[in-house]
Design the sequence.
């Protein structure tokens, strides 16, 4: 603005120009410092990738970043730089690991679905088989050892969104986009195991993606010739929307379903009658899970909350609301003890104590939305499937133990939707599935040193 065009007194205008110049210099200095910080982080990433080492995020934050912050004399600059340092500390915290690496081995791939796989689970009775639920309107049962399809369920008219197995009988429970949940019986005979190709063990932590390009969709296998079941023994119909998940209550005499109609329903299996309708969520439900030993149910929702429903006392059905996430809660699962683990699209996983629900006892921050998580009963390890095709393993205190290998030769090529642990003596103790139309069986070897930490 020219002097003759300004209506302000000359002294006031001069002071304003001087103040704006100081602000400009402060932002310029901050911008240059931020560029330097980014270069340091990039250099650290390159060095870690080349040397296969890790650096504690806290040490870095206390070192170079904190030293640079102390050089600033401007209060504005200091506040902005503190905010930036906090964000970079979150990035560096993903490097946290122990010196002893977990070892992950891809054992078997289960391919045959014609669309993405939403959910999977392992039977709790003999014979131990893997079950998958797919958007291609089918559920399949697989031999864990051979990767062969043993049975296909064709009873649903919509996407099969969930599969869970009865605790003591050869019965499956599936939830579908056709607004129903089906209970159906299966009988399978395991084939003779074939020799497994020797796949070298791969350290999980610092595997390198040799290719980030998506493979073609046409590599999925065609129709699988296996027996099929077309009719459910019980059909549960009460929802007015997609049934996104279902699970058995302890004992297997009741089941709970979660739907996009914002309600969860509790049914009696023998009579197919609706026992309770669990309402209160403000938006669509995304998942439901039951406690392995107690009559407790947890439901998660797009309303950023998950709810704990207590059916231990027949006369009282209490509910507690957990508010700790800022985006859709994609799943919440029980552990054997008194903990619930929740995952969210806000890129965090939180561990909660049922006796103190005000705040989580551990928070895991990641770089991608988290889908249906699972917790190992024996080792208490949390498996996190991500939108970005990665699968990471953490302990209950939030320390990262491993990242499953993912490259153009191993791992998932699309979003990983679900994970499930197998506690039986099989070649695989972790299973994952995704929208690349396949499930993968992994052998996870966590050294005792890591489990003690």
Sequence:
């Amino acid at each position: 603005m020219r002097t003759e065009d300004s209506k302000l007194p000359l002294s006031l205008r001069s002071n304003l120009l001087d103040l704006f110049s100081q602000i400009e210099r402060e932002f310029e200095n901050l911008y240059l410092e931020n560029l330097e910080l980014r270069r340091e982080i990039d250099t650290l990433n390159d060095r870690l990738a080349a040397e296969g080492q890790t650096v504690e995020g806290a040490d870095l934050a206390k070192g170079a970043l904190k030293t640079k912050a102390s050089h600033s004399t401007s209060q504005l600059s200091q506040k902005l730089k503190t905010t930036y340092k906090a964000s970079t500390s979150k990035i560096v915290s993903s490097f946290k690991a122990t010196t002893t690496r977990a070892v992950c081995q891809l054992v078997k791939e289960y391919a045959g679905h014609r669309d993405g796989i939403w959910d999977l689970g392992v039977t709790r009775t003999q014979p131990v088989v893997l079950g998958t639920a797919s958007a291609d309107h089918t559920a399949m049962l697989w031999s864990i050892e051979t990767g062969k399809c043993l049975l296909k369920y064709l009873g649903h008219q919509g996407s099969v969104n969930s599969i869970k197995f009865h605790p003591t009988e050869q019965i499956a429970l599936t939830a579908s986009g056709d607004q129903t949940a089906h209970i159906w019986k299966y009988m399978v005979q395991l084939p003779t195991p074939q020799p497994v190709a020797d796949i070298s063990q791969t350290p999980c932590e610092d595997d390198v993606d040799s290719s980030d390009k998506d493979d073609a969709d046409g590599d999925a296998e065609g129709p699988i010739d296996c027996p099929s079941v077309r009719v459910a023994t019980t059909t549960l119909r009460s929802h007015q929307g997609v049934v996104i998940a279902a699970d058995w209550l302890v004992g297997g005499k009741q089941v709970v379903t979660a739907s996009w109609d914002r309600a969860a329903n509790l049914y009696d299996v023998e009579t197919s009658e609706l026992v309770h309708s669990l309402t209160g969520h403000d938006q669509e439900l995304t998942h439901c899970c039951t406690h392995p030993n107690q009559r407790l149910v947890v439901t998660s929702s797009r309303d950023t909350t998950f709810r704990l429903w207590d059916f231990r006392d027949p006369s009282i059905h209490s509910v507690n609301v957990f508010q700790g996430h800022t985006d859709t809660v994609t799943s919440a699962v029980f552990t054997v003890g008194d903990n619930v683990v929740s995952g969210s699209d806000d890129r965090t996983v939180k561990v909660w104590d049922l006796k103190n629900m005000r705040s989580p006892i551990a928070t895991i921050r990641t770089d991608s939305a988290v889908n249906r998580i699972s917790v190992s009963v024996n080792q208490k390890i949390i498996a996190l499937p991500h939108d970005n095709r990665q699968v990471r393993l953490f302990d209950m205190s939030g320390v990262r133990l491993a990242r499953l290998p993912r490259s153009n030769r191993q791992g998932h090529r699309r979003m990983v939707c679900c994970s499930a642990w197998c506690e039986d003596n099989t070649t695989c103790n972790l299973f994952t599935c995704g929208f690349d139309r396949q499930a993968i069986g992994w052998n996870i070897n966590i050294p005792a040193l890591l489990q003690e930490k």
The first helix runs from residue 10 to 51.
